[in-house]
């Protein structure tokens, strides 16, 4: 079987749309069509149903499984030989949200680049499910995500329980509740809040998985919040909240990445759910049975070290707060 035809077959099977695939891999639709017809003639079976839309046949799914396994083994052989030859050049495809890329890369890239200056880092800013698919397909080497929807063909490693906080500008707290009540609320919420004390505040809400958990906290508190803004992006909610017009939600990693941007008057209260601190678990994923070259394994270890350090610093802050 022609490896080029198998490549076009695998790429077309991702989109199941001839026009979209041709644009994505920069070839003509006719080129793809010719290779598919050639492959079907050689194998003696139809790989796709053409109508009403392009779908894989049972035979097509079998061939796709074979091609995926063949691609994985080719990559494994190439990476194994690179390690045997002590090659210290190549590339890593690393995926995460923009927030997580921005929080971890400054911490790990200096050490990585010092050890492997000839390795290129290719970044993919993607949503969770898309990242899973990229890692599973071998198109990303490593991914950092907060929700694993399907562990099939993946190695999943917990990195950090990222604590969730509700942030309230102090001037907003005093404006809404008055000085005396604001002082009482601040004292009560310093070690954790289930949102009952904050019912009168406007909030920036999140429209994502974390936002779903936060909504459960509001349900538990027994009220529907006044909504100032809704966004899928924690950074945007925080930027609006920093202006002092609304309370917002964040995590230890997200708030830590803001550094000196955090307003001095911002109250940062641990968020509780069912009487316990709420956490957002962060995972690292990679393709099962895929051989990673030494430089990729080194980068993964740097990521683990980074999240261990984040957890250690957070534990120290919590201990100081308790004392």
CATH topology of the largest domain: D-Maltodextrin-Binding Protein, domain 2
Low-confidence stretches: none
User: What is the number of helical segments per DSSP (H or I, 4+ residues)?
Assistant: 11
State the helical fraction.
Answer: 40-55%
Distance between the termini: 69 Å
The number of distinct β-strands equals 13
CATH first level of the largest domain: which class? Alpha Beta
Strand content: 15-25%
Annotated CATH homologous superfamily of the largest domain: Periplasmic binding protein-like II
Q: Any idea what the shape is?
A: elongated
Our count of domains comes out at: 3
- What is the annotated CATH architecture of the largest domain? 3-Layer(aba) Sandwich
Reported for the largest beta sheet, the result is:
7 strands, mixed
**Cα-based radius of gyration, to the nearest Å:** 25 Å
Mean pLDDT: 89
Q: Which series of helices and strands comes N to C?
A: HHHEEHEHEHEEHEHEHEHEEEEH
InterPro entries: HTH-type_LysR_regulators, LysR_HTH_N, LysR_subst-bd, WH-like_DNA-bd_sf, WH_DNA-bd_sf
Domain HTH lysR-type: 1-57
Protein name: DNA-binding transcriptional regulator, LysR family
GO molecular function, one term: DNA-binding transcription factor activity
């Amino acid at each position: 079987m022609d490896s080029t035809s198998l490549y076009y077959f695998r790429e077309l099977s991702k989109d199941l749309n001839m026009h979209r695939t041709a644009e994505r891999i920069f070839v003509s639709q006719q080129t793809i069509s010719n290779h598919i017809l050639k492959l079907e003639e050689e194998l003696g079976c139809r790989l796709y149903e053409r109508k009403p839309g392009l779908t894989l046949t049972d035979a097509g799914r079998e061939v796709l499984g074979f091609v995926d396994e063949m691609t994985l083994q080719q990559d494994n052989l190439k990476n194994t030989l690179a390690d045997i030859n002590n090659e210290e050049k190549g590339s890593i495809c690393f995926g995460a949200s923009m927030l997580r890329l921005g929080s971890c890369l400054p911490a790990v890239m200096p050490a990585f680049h010092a050890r492997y200056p000839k390795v290129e880092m290719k970044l993919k800013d993607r949503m969770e499910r898309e990242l899973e698919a990229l890692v599973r397909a071998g198109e990303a080497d490593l991914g950092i995500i907060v929700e694993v929807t399907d562990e099939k063909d993946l190695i999943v490693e917990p990195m950090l329980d990222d604590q969730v906080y509700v942030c309230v500008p102090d001037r907003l707290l005093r404006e809404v509740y008055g000085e005396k009540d604001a002082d009482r609320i601040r004292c009560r919420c310093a070690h954790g809040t289930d949102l009952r004390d904050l019912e009168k505040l406007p909030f920036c809400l999140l429209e994502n998985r974390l936002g779903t958990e936060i909504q459960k906290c509001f349900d538990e508190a027994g009220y529907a919040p006044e909504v100032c803004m809704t966004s899928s992006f924690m950074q945007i909610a925080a930027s609006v909240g920093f202006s002092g017009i609304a309370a917002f939600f964040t995590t230890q990693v997200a708030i830590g990445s803001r550094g000196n941007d955090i307003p001095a008057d911002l109250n940062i209260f641990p968020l509780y759910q069912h009487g316990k601190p709420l956490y957002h678990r962060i995972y690292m994923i990679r393709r099962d049975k895929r051989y990673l070259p030494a430089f990729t394994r080194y980068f993964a270890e740097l990521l683990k070290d980074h999240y261990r350090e984040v957890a250690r610093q957070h534990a120290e802050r919590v201990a100081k707060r308790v004392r």
